[in-house]
């Protein structure tokens, strides 16, 4: 039977997203960064001013406004301005190179790009110069027209348009872990449902401070930020995701809830400057976007006495589960959020029994309305109101969900299905291993062999390949890697996941070289 979260209450109205914070504490901090603090009134006034000034530039409701910006308070004001003006926010990851920038601009049909001056050389080499309204710069010595002038200057007495709840409000680009990045489109209604569902699931209140330790161009940090603001919760804005930035921000903002990718959180926990006092104010630390390794749970528990709450999310949904994290459920991705229904099905579309592995289908009001200009991909992913996640999962008798791997990433070795994350998790237990990426490489005899790319901790002696394979074999048996390749750095994609596409490309190049 399907596994359902509680009923979803009233969705958030995007044009009035700040109303609770404004009512309760208008002149108190809403956004806290190491450089600046914005009150609720500041954020409301700046976003409204930007919305009106965007329309005076010649933008019209429905136009796509791309942004290439690091995390900072004005980015959240920009997104709110897009909501209010009926514009479609189209974030690019700040680490994107020229090919990724051009892909997003081409696919979205953006009218305007907002970009930090630090990315000027790449923007000059990109197709941004050909956009109908060009480039709006931000940062010191930004050319006019600048985002700063529009956010701080005068705005016309202009009535903002009424929002059509079915209209697109944002386009997020997937990480490209299984192919070219697609434009995941969310409507006014799906974002409103997403924010309301997450605020309720994580029990966010006016007493909380949310620290979304990820890029605001990614659905996770974006959704957690606006879910928090809709609940009257302050948001701590991280400029970077290392201890040099996060340590002072912890001490300044005293966050109660934090979300961070597993790889970044593991590096933070292992940073010699990190102390238990950094995490002392937190009531909940959530991680997802990839499997949370057991080694991270062990090290985080040893440092803080708290578990990491592993949950499940997708660009197509936002964050779909929450996890009360009882110790006997560690490793689970938790329970469905309000308004979210999971159905675990076999290859014929029939629901499987609790405890059996199948493919997760999800129905929720926060589901994407489709992929931008890609009807074929939309039809393949969404059928009869259900989203095919492409993820293998199972549910236990208590209704907790367990992630079993991405179907497209499974390695088939001698007919057995092997999950890359499971192999990575085993190797991360080795005291010399800093990071691991696992892929399948073609083999005439076995179909695919399991290859692990391994990064060794600084200052540690590199173990032998045989030692690492035996170490993994003692934990995994036949699933242990057949091959080990040492790298100076395991590549991560733009959102901080192990970049298996890059590893596949590396493997293909090695194969061509040997042939």
Molecular structure report:
- This protein is α/β, with parallel strands linked by helices and 515 residues long.
- The chain has two domains: 3-322, Rossmann fold (3-Layer(aba) Sandwich); 410-514, ANL, C-terminal domain (GMP Synthetase, Chain A, domain 3, 2-Layer Sandwich), CATH 3.30.300.
- The chain is 31% helix and 25% strand.
- Helix 8 links the parallel strand 10 and strand 11 (234-236).
- The protein is globular, with a radius of gyration of 23 Å.
Topology (elements, then pairings):
Layout: E1 3-4, H1 19-25, E2 29-32, E3 37-39, H2 40-56, E4 64-68, H3 73-85, E5 88-92, H4 98-108, E6 112-116, H5 120-125, E7 135-138, H6 147-152, E8 168-173, E9 183-187, H7 188-201, E10 209-213, H8 219-230, E11 234-236, H9 243-253, E12 257-260, H10 262-270, E13 284-287, H11 294-304, E14 309-310, E15 313-314, E16 318-319, E17 321-322, E18 335-336, E19 340-345, E20 358-364, E21 370-371, H12 375-381, E22 382-383, E23 386-395, E24 401-406, E25 411-413, E26 416-418, H13 420-428, E27 433-443, E28 447-456, H14 465-476, E29 483-486, H15 500-514
Parallel strand pairs: 2-11, 4-5, 4-6, 6-7, 10-11, 10-12, 12-13, 13-14, 28-29
Antiparallel strand pairs: 1-19, 2-3, 8-9, 9-21, 15-16, 17-18, 19-20, 20-23, 22-23, 23-24, 25-26, 27-28
Helix pairs in contact: 2-3, 7-8, 10-11, 13-14
